[in-house]
């Protein structure tokens, strides 16, 4: 931490909070996942609101419940799953730049809808990078540890001179994701995409930053042989032998061994990261 | 070569052998196509990630379809010795599946001259080929929720060593104390595509 630089202290991390940025590129060939913010759109918005470069690291809070104390005066913004935000007990704006005085306590409540809330600090969170990224990867076990009570987060200087007026996308109550055919469409029965889109599917509790695991109609395969391992992408919908789809998120493994039926459109991938366990999720095919 | 669609930032190029995967990777590295951000070689495919602001998906697919990748033998000069103790919980099951004695499984596994075909699954996990075909066994019907770090395992034509404790469905025949992954080390991965690997009995060291 450079002398005179800012810092914030984690008073309460909530159920699960990590540091995230755009993730790690260049190490996939030795098996290192991309990782990065699960909801890249809300993450980018938080950085834009405080005048950061897109590469700055921010906090990703799962189910809210975050409480921070500013050691120095800082500018913050809270985006993603909408929560009540307070500064020293007074209501503050969600989705806007907030001035926080030194010593003030910022509380982020539980989200009314959605799952992941982002908190960016002007200058970015400056914890040490691992392989070029400050993201915590829960699958690979790489990156900074999850936030704990008493974690001190130094503030960096990853700022941008000019700020474009950011566009706020509220997290919708109903999640419907646009999908396009994936690389192994021909491994499935003709009606597999129709069945996926007809649903209904529910997000299972064992979902995490690696993948959404879905409960709903099984997607029938045409072939039962084993697929040799092949590369995966964020948004890939893979179907294991039991037919229940698995939708990969930020910390997906580099390769997978089951066929990918469809891929969530890039425009809708942020919505997958806001899907709550126990809640419905639906899909529609690109026309 | 088939070029399969894979979202708006990647395409999957499929060829008919691992050697052609290497040939294609070599061609892609040589040409250094602008906008290609990452290559992920696997058993029969290369996942080509790209930046759609620099190169369009259809243009990249067209470029790939015009390639005629020649088979290329892979292998760096680097040979890594992995010490192993054959006491895995699935050793009896593997022996039963292959109609061999457990001691023969160990012997045949030690005789293999392996090469890292590709990496994936987890940081530092190499898919090793070059093992005895008699040792090809299917994955377990029910994956374990926790496989210990260092577990030496078999699945299909591959052998591998788990770099860290994680869920997994491979058949566990032994364990190695080698540090396959250390983020503080440069490079962090002990094995990378092309690395040659031999297993040596722990006691012989």
Greatest interface = A-B, 38 and 42 residues
Q: Which assembly state applies to the chains in this document?
A: heterodimer
- Residues in helices of chain A, as a percent range: under 10%
Mean pLDDT of chain A: 93
| Uncertain regions spanning at least 5 consecutive residues of chain A | none
Placed side by side, the strands forming the largest sheet of chain B appear as: 1-2-4-3
SSE string of chain B, helix = H, strand = E?
A: EEHEEHEHHEEEEEEEE
Beta-sheet strand percentage of chain A? Answer: 25-35%
Helix content of chain B: 10-25%
* Low-pLDDT residue spans of chain B: none
Strand order of the largest sheet of chain A: 12-19-16-17-14-13-20
Give the N-terminus to C-terminus distance of chain A in angstroms.
Answer: 52 Å
The shape of chain B, in one word, is: elongated
Rg of Cα set of chain A: 20 Å
Report what the structure shows.
The complex is a heterodimer of chains A (287) and B (205). Chain A is mostly beta strands. Chain A is 7% helix and 30% strand. Chain A is built from three helices and 20 strands. In chain A, the strands form four sheets. A seven-stranded mixed β-barrel of chain A has the order 12-19-16-17-14-13-20. In chain A, a hairpin with a 7-residue loop joins β16 and β17. Chain A starts with 6 loop residues before the first strand and ends with a strand. The mean pLDDT of chain A is 93. Chain B is α+β, with helices and mostly antiparallel strands. Helix content of chain B is 20%, strand content 31%. Chain B is built from four helices and 13 strands. In chain B, the strands form four sheets. A four-stranded antiparallel beta sheet of chain B has the order 1-2-4-3, covered by helices on one side. Chain B has a four-stranded mixed beta sheet with strand order 5-13-6-7, covered by helices on one side. In chain B, β1 and β2 form a beta hairpin. Chain B is elongated, with a radius of gyration of 19 Å. At the A-B interface, β15 and β19 of A face β3 and β4 of B.
